[in-house]
């Protein structure tokens, strides 16, 4: 759990180092007439929960490609994977991963962007990837057995030569890079926007669910919207992120009526909620966070005979009771947005439940007080 927390904190800090595009992208070529692409999402629970998608990269003999698992990330924009050059000293550096590093020199469709253009992706947890912008063919398995794989040519990505991820300890590590889906020209969504009408959708299940239903990342013009859909406009942001206007927060169905000064720090570059699929926890401005915790404390104090507040020394607000009821009588949280739109977060999405050796249920709030000064923001992953 602690590793998950550290990673989520690092994600919040990451927004102070967002990448910006320094070149214009050509439109990618799409080899199928299908209007929707459905890509299975895989939960990687070890060492940290991460949503992965399988991507075929390159063109080899018999039109084969190399398959890699990339982190689906709406909170960043760059696509990158480790290339074979990371094995060549002195500049090269690789982290351990399950699949062979991408053999770009052997791919028939690999193109180095000219003039040679380097990139540097750095993240708050110490991870980084440095290398060269390149172009390649990306392939996705079709969810229909009667349809061929879906190919996109000339996708601009980072061919990583110097890479590091602290959580990679051995060659069972699944993560081979990142598929950035943020709001910038180098993101995968932007590069294929003409083919998909700028639309994509996904729905995650909790990572503690046994035998979960399949999850899919979908792209395309005929994605079916939910019943009675409500539309939110993205706000302009200094960062290349999906930023929506959140106006209030509620606890257990009761609206807190927070002011803008409570919701967002005065000197913050972000005045809204950032949707980031790469974060496992939510980070709130300290005044908004404190208001939620105060309301939670009051709720559990009124049930003092059943619940006890725990001080676990991890910076989280946690409560305990004798094991047995799971999420019964546990409150949820609601996010309120402009235009009367609200998102009800069920108790399972509000608290993380664990069983301690004393046979107690420990419920820890899945929100954190933001610690990053000017980067204070509400971020939900």
TrEMBL record:
The keyword Hydrolase appears for this protein: yes
Task: State the SUPFAM superfamilies in the record.
Answer: Acid proteases
Question: Which GO molecular function annotation, any one, does this entry have?
Answer: peptidase activity
List the GO cellular component terms: extracellular region
Q: Which Gene3D superfamilies match?
A: Acid Proteases
Endpoints of the signal sequence: none
Q: What GO terms describe the biological role, i.e. biological process, of this protein? A: proteolysis
Keywords on record? Hydrolase, Protease
**In this protein, which residues make up the domain named Peptidase A1?**
51-381
Q: Which family does the UniProt entry place this protein in?
A: Belongs to the peptidase A1 family.
Q: What's the protein called, per UniProt?
A: Peptidase A1 domain-containing protein
Q: Which organism is it from?
A: Lupinus luteus (European yellow lupine)
The major lineage groups are:
Eukaryota, Viridiplantae, Streptophyta, Embryophyta, Tracheophyta
